[in-house]
Amino acid sequence: MPPVHDGDATRTISAPPSKRSLDTDPESSDANFQIPTPYDSGLSNNFTTSCDDFLNNRMLGSDTIKNCHPFSLLLLTSTGLFDASQSKIRITQTLEATCAANFTDCLGGMNSLARELITDSACKVDYDNNNAQVVEAYNGLIAYEPLYRASCLRDDEGSYCYANAVTNTTNDGEDAYPYSLPLGVTLAGGARPTCNSCLQDTMAIFSTFAGNSSQPISRTYSNAAQQITIYCGATFVNVTAAPLKGGASAATTAFTPTITLFIMFILYFFQ
């Protein structure tokens, strides 16, 4: 079942409205720009009939996908997002649409679609057979929260961190590489994202989800974090997953049943 986190450990930096708004930029009023959509180049036909129907109709036709503009699905599947990433204004408009969505409703909708995707009446056969696009879709659905929170981070000037990353041409786009970690994509061996507060805050978000084995980032975070510490410093990011909020320690968990058994043992002999 797709996990749900409260994500309180994340930090979203807000700036004054004058720095956040694009209304004064003439390019931002272009009525021809449309918010990118997932799988805008179409899906393959390499699916079972039930899965094809689910992906093309139930999932892509749902209000959740249409209204939430999920960054987690856009990132690896949308040519429109790639095109928007060539412009700081366009990618900012896209992120504003993503971040303006009702997070609670969208998270519930994305989790519901993920659960439905792996049912017998949808894509279970395809998923069990490791169909690449089906696994990609499932990962995009369950990774909604970590990528929503990461994509909505802003720097001290009010710019979206992802917009900065994807438009930074000084390091061949490597600042954007970490954003694929929650989708199960490993960080390229030679990648060196810029060691700034955006990278640090993004990895802090990801670390809070990396301890959940049902999240794809549980398989990609640790190696990426270790790689980043090599050139950003040993304390720049958590190398291991941060403890889940509210989780009991191993010692406490183990100690509780021991006390219970001891009390039962005493009562047995003195009754």
TrEMBL record:
Residues 1-37 are annotated as: Disordered. It holds the Pfam family DUF7729. This is DUF7729 domain-containing protein. The keyword DNA repair does not apply. The chain crosses the membrane at residues 248-270. Residues 34-240 form the DUF7729 domain. InterPro entries: DUF7729. Keywords: Membrane, Transmembrane, Transmembrane helix.
